[in-house]
Amino acid sequence: MATRGRVTVNPDLAKERANATFDVDNLTNFINGGVAATKRKRYLQNLAINDPELQDRKPWACMTREEQYETALRKHIHMNKRMEEMDITEQRDKMEYLGTGANHESSPIGVHTSMFLPTLQKQGTEDQKRRYLPLAEKLSIIGTYAQTELGHGTFIRGLETTATYDPKSREFVLNSPTLTSMKYWPGHLGKTVNFCILMAQLYTNGKGHGMHTFLVPLRDLDTHQSLPGVELGDIGPKFGYNSNDNGYLILKNVRIPRENMLMRYSQVLEDGTYVRPSNARISYGTMTLIRVGIVTTVSRCLAQACVIAVRYSAVRRQTEVSPGGPEAQIIDYQTQQHKLFPLIATSFAFYFTGLEIYKIYNVVNTSVEEGNLDQIGDLHGLSAGLKAFSSSSCCAGIEVCRLACGGHGYSHASGIPKIYVSTIPTCTFEGENTVLYLQTARYLMKCFTKVQRGEKLPGFVSYLGTDLTAKSTLKSDVAIDCLVLAYEHRAARMIKAAAMNVQELVQQGLTQQQAWNKTTQQFVWATMAHCHAYVVKTFAMRISNSNLDDKTKKVMVAVCKLYAVHGMLENLGDFIQDGFLTGSQVDAVTRKMMYLLEEIRPNAVALVDSFDYPDKALDSCLGRYDGDVYKALYEYSKASPLNKKDVLDSYTTYIQPLQRSSGTSSMAKL
Asked: Active site includes 84?
């Protein structure tokens, strides 16, 4: 065993790290945003690692659902208190601290901080904020965001919950008029919260005004008993997120004061007069923020799975390469490299994309705060598609990482199942992915129409105006700029084809909606291509504009190229359909893929080390920094609750009578 400081490291892992061609800390600092940011991150991680209140009392997978809920609640309330004491207010700092202290243990107060508070801050009046924000920030009131219903989720206009204004009492009367109108799925609604922000159809003076937000008390602040007219509870065990009490809510003639409607942008006056907002989409700002955040979140989840799978692939030896020779590290097999190395690249690609769109969100949000709503549509068109594309890609990648770990990947000991079940909901919450692709598709359709009219487009869709008759100039070196152009050509061609199909169907006599419905799958493919092009270009720009040292930059250029080349070969038909790429160019791309796998091989472990996840965050026997995998698996097995007794009571109840009745008990004497 090799030694790193006081840590004894598996010799295969030690060799991998010694053979890396770049300094891991340099790349870690680049990922984090500088030396000071890395130091801050590790400080916060160590706060969580060394806090006795955050130590697990038994393996997470061995806890009952109620134990998982109580453990997560205890940890997150404790960490919330500690963050307040230490004045930890930056979102990134919170993410690092929480992610180490309770990684993939969904917080029973997470929606309170990620959606309830931001909605109050962005949509509440100054009076509402003065009244409720101090209480919410101190957890004196705990809330959730109640939008999704039993019968409707992403289609917000179809929600059925009603808020009818009564001008005599100056109150809103809230009702769940049908079975399908019950709120269903909001996080923490079941048992934790005492308030919610309710999305409901507003009616006043006999007219409907669409969806609006209301602040609704649900439980007594002293007893926590549900209030009159309020029926709520937990929806039961789920595929994952079982520390989270996702709930249901039925409202029967519940009255709230007029002042409980969030009225920063739209108002109901005392006499029932409705004052509409300048832009109806402004109430969707919280969802946009969450969608933007998901891109970075899922990239981190995939990165953690990659750390586990790559480190294990360096430690695990399987099959002789030559008869009588030593068993090879499975990371030396090209097929294993083809599974994992593009996923390392994908983690980087979506992480940098997440940082970029968060910057865009902040710019647009500042403009909105100043009263300029012009860019809301552009941000929505960008964030909806990228949320769908990143979550689908990363969840699929996590499953590949699990399979790459062989049989041990199926065990909770690997840590990957815990990552997977906490990541997979991102494909459906805050908008089911197909629906979000189509929302972005509608935006792209509008952009294409503007191109036809000769109008200027925002930068990230400006490629729609490029010449589609041009052919690729890609050569054997497979330059990044040629790859970017190829992705933009692919997206532009597919968007044009889908949009032209709609226009042709309309010319044949179909309505716009009928034509759209006959083209939706084509538009989903086109939107995926658009998102893919955006990610490739963002990744390439991030690396080309970086101040990385030469050795690190060389490695990251290879990683960036691998992401683009792999995606091109996986979707090859899209790139050759109109002859943009020739057969010889496809051969060059294929050769480049194999070369890049070989080039990245010496740096694979160092690349995943640069993500800088401590063992506590990974919670994995296979992904340990020291590589002592088999001892860890043995210790994990011994900790199984079934091993508390050598002979279980079930033996006496079921097996022993069976054996006695069949006469097999005499075998013990043999």
From this structure: no
